[in-house]
């Protein structure tokens, strides 16, 4: 029996006879405040509600057709296999029909229906989401951003005035929740942080525009909008209805995914995603914007949850839960604004000694930024991390340039509160002393981990290495020599036997 409170069209779309194909009964209806989605088995049909919220306006048939078409176009980028067509719905008398004769009264987006078990959120809740999948997501999102459109018009959305308008609006819309799920102290501190951030970083924001890191992004990249289907990670349901939510810094997208995982108490999964993404793009400087966007995304989640408190139709028990959830996100938004003490961690050792494995393990434990010399070298050489480097990438001049860049990035990020792990051979005492001197000059906590393993283990690891960005081979290893650590270096140094468990040593 259909729900009489639903529009007549939706009531008919819940009947199997409406569709020109077989359906799985009963047809399921999912609703949000802006759309209806009908799940029929092989296909899903999405309709936009005739609503106008200011930032989103679907109030006319022409607007709904336009934004259905935009949703199809934009989601072809990240989930082309799911998004099929925009179809007209016609009406003759009291009967509605897909692509029938008569007057077009509505439009629907036809999509392939995928099993809900493929949703990243479902996989997370079942404890199935792995760091390997998050690393693959990092590569997928990096490729998505590399292909995303940019232009002078899109660049303009990277202006401070544009970015801060949306953030200030969030604060204005949540003033009334101070004393409820939000506290006065958190509200003032979070707002003060963003004011100071914009005031002191004009050059940084200008560089984001100049280097075209403002792109037509996804805009809503959290676990509910990522799925795995046919062994492929898909990014779906991007923002189609509002340009300022879509024309954003790539770090805006990245922060949404990281924040979603940290809010769910799995920062290690967020770290696996973040470090893989950055390694692919080479946009280590962009990490400077991460605290701003992490706070912004948590704040938006808090704001939207707070809106439920104003809805008279929401039961009291659900409102109490919403208040606790909103409070959690307001606190998280504030925590992201708190000053942190950065540190510099140097990995050292010959090829195959387990430096990268140890660094990855450590990064997941401490939320560290893991920067590999292999990736830095290849970005400097103008090739992707996956490509094999030629001899020109391994000249003494290029090696020095790589270490200079590695240290420059390490100091830049550590002085802004990040724990940075520089992962390179650091086989020469001169390279290590330069890093120690810079850390001391900037008063940064420093640690040097010297990774070791027997020669036969190093050779076996290099033989078995596949799919990694490092180019070193057994032949290269035979030419390597590690200059012993000096007495000057020992106060910061610790030797790690990578054939033994890491946790007890770290």
Cα-based radius of gyration, to the nearest Å = 26 Å
Low-pLDDT stretches: none
By DSSP (H or I, 4+ residues per run), the number of helices equals 20
> Shape, please?
globular
Approximate strand percentage:
15-25%
Protein name: Gluconokinase
Characterise this structure:
The protein has helices spanning 8-13, 61-79, 120-125, 131-147, 152-155, 160-174, 184-199, 202-210, 243-246, 250-263, 267-281, 290-307, 316-335, 355-366, 373-380, 396-414, 429-441, 455-464, 474-477, 502-505, and strands spanning 28-31, 35-39, 43-48, 83-92, 95-98, 103-112, 214-216, 226-229, 232-235, 247-249, 343-348, 369-372, 419-423, 446-452, 493-497. The protein has 506 residues and is an alpha/beta fold. Strand 4 (83-92) and strand 5 (95-98) form a beta hairpin. The termini are far apart.
What does this entry show, briefly?
With about 500 residues, the chain is an alpha/beta fold. It is about 45% helix and about 15% strand.
Topology at a glance:
Elements: H1 8-13, E1 28-31, E2 35-39, E3 43-48, H2 61-79, E4 83-92, E5 95-98, E6 103-112, H3 120-125, H4 131-147, H5 152-155, H6 160-174, H7 184-199, H8 202-210, E7 214-216, E8 226-229, E9 232-235, H9 243-246, E10 247-249, H10 250-263, H11 267-281, H12 290-307, H13 316-335, E11 343-348, H14 355-366, E12 369-372, H15 373-380, H16 396-414, E13 419-423, H17 429-441, E14 446-452, H18 455-464, H19 474-477, E15 493-497, H20 502-505
Parallel strand pairs: 11-13, 11-14, 12-13, 14-15
Antiparallel strand pairs: 1-2, 2-3, 3-6, 4-5, 4-6, 7-10, 8-9
Organism: Neosynechococcus sphagnicola sy1
Pfam families: AAA_33
Protein name: Gluconokinase
């Amino acid at each position: 029996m259909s729900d009489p409170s639903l529009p007549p069209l939706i009531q008919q779309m819940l009947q199997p006879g409406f569709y020109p194909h077989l359906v799985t009964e009963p047809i399921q209806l999912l609703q949000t405040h802006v759309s209806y989605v009908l799940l029929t088995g092989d296909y899903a049909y999405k309709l936009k509600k005739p609503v106008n919220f200011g930032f989103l306006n679907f109030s006319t048939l022409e607007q709904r057709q336009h934004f259905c078409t935009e949703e199809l176009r934009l989601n072809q980028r990240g989930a082309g296999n799911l998004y099929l067509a925009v179809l007209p719905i016609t009406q003759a008398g009291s009967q509605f029909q897909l692509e029938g004769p008569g007057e077009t009264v509505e439009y629907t987006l036809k999509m392939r229906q995928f099993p809900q078990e493929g949703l990243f959120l479902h996989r997370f809740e079942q404890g199935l989401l792995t760091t390997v999948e998050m690393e693959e997501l990092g590569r997928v999102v990096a490729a998505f951003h590399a292909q995303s459109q940019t232009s002078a018009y899109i660049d303009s959305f990277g202006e401070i005035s544009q970015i801060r308008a949306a953030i200030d609006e969030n604060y204005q819309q949540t003033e009334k929740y101070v004393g409820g799920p939000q506290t006065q102290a958190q509200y003032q501190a979070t707002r003060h942080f963003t004011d100071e951030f914009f005031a002191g970083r004009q050059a940084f924001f200008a560089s984001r525009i100049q280097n075209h890191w403002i792109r037509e992004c996804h805009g809503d990249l959290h676990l509910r909008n990522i799925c795995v289907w046919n062994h492929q990670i898909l990014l779906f349901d991007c923002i189609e209805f509002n340009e300022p939510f879509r024309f954003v810094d790539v770090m805006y997208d990245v922060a949404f995914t990281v924040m979603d995982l940290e809010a769910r108490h799995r920062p290690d999964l967020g770290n696996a995603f973040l470090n893989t993404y950055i390694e692919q793009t080479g946009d280590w400087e962009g990490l400077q914007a991460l605290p701003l966007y992490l706070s912004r995304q948590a704040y938006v989640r808090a704001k939207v949850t707070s809106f439920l408190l104003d809805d008279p139709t929401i039961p009291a028990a659900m409102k109490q839960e919403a208040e606790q959830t909103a409070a959690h996100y307001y606190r998280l938004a504030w925590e992201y604004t708190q000053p942190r003490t950065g540190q510099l961690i140097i990995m050292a050792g010959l090829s195959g000694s387990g430096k990268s494995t140890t660094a990855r393990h450590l990064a997941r434990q401490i939320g560290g930024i893991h920067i590999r010399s292999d990736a830095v070298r290849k970005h400097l050489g103008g090739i992707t991390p996956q490509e094999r480097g030629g001899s020109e990438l391994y000249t003494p001049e290029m090696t020095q340039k790589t270490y200079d860049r590695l240290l420059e990035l390490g100091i830049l990020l550590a002085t802004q509160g990040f724990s940075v792990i520089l992962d390179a051979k650091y086989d020469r005492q001169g390279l290590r002393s330069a890093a120690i001197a810079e850390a001391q000059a900037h008063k940064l906590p420093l640690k040097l981990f010297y990774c070791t393993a027997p020669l036969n283990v190093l050779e076996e690891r290099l033989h078995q290495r596949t799919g990694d960005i490092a180019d070193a081979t057994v032949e290269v290893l035979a030419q390597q020599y590690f200059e012993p650590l000096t007495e000057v270096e020992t106060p910061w140094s610790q030797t790690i036997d990578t054939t033994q468990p890491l946790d007890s040593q770290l």
